[in-house]
Amino acid sequence: MASSHLLCNHHLFYPSSKSFPKTSFSSFAPHGSASIHPKVQFRRNSVVKATQRKLEVVYDPDERINKLANEVDKDAPLSRLTLFSPCKINVFLRITNKREDGYHDLASLFHAISLGDIIKFSLSPSKTKDRLSTNVTGVPLDDRNLIIKALNLYRKKTGSDNFFWIHLDKKVPTGAGLGGGSSNAATALWAANLFNGSPATEKELQEWSSEIGSDIPFFFSHGAAYCTGRGEVVQDISPPLPSDLPMVLIKPQEACPTAEVYKHFRLDLASKVDPLTLLEKISTHGISQNVCINDLEAPAFQVLPSLKRLKQRIIAASRGEYDAVLMSGSGSTIVGIGSPDPPQFVYDEDDYRDVFLSEANFITREANEWYREPASATATCKPSEISRNME
User: Fold this and answer.
1) What global pTM score does this model have?
2) Is 88 a known active-site residue?
3) Which of 317, 309, 368, 318 is nearest to 338 (CA)?
């Protein structure tokens, strides 16, 4: 029998100095401890039934935080920094070739979205080691983490002797096909460069980043890019989709291991549509189901059959509410574009009690600035679900 569940709906406000004289975050300590400001306010909003509720958390704008990266005086010494680390979706993803080295070439429209992590950096007195902490379990804190790899890479390329305390406030689940770890790495490279007075250009950071991950270079685009090769060849494009186009992300607890998905991929069964044709159609006519092709869907559905059923149910239940329903990357997130609301069955059925839900929209960034978190970012989850998705 379906049971009701408490939903936690976090509306996180991180306004810039243009909106308020002060901004807000939980406090930062070297070992990664975080505390919520005592003035946090809770309001109840009905969801669908009287037995279902969302909790809205509003962070008091008077709470002090580290300076936002986009407002840093580059001539002043920098000791602390807080950055937004957005994730991405693949609006379409075509696999175009299998190379002799065993890797596959792709052609994909990547786009940054408003769901993301918060990373706090503080200069460490240590000259030998970075220290990373996080709010969830299951995330490696040593040099297996792309953040640490990125900082090591920056020191190797520049000769910098800066080491850091880093706290990762994780909101993007892993194994989701959203590039959360790649974004964290790009954000760490950007931060390290700021701490050193920005000696490296954006292009150099982008080129260096491909050494540790093929998705990382995308985040040095301006938020919308046509990516080819393994993803490391990034062509900035004018954003083809409006920033006010809403979407909902639905990720089951199960992840799709990328290596397993590629093992099940068959090039002869992939779409034959020219990816540039897809890009042109999206740029001209916007989102529709027939342009949101992902060649990794079929093998991902073999690895995780329940993911195929989830996508089919979302399409059937939406009754045209979404312009398109697609899987991002290698899975396991299903994205409904055109509405921020998930289908009712996600709330009603026990089989979906552990799904991760988040509203989002498309975002971009300005040249020489990092991504800004939207004034209001909404993440909806069931209790402990973010931690469960990290394990």
Assistant:
1) 0.79
2) yes
3) 318
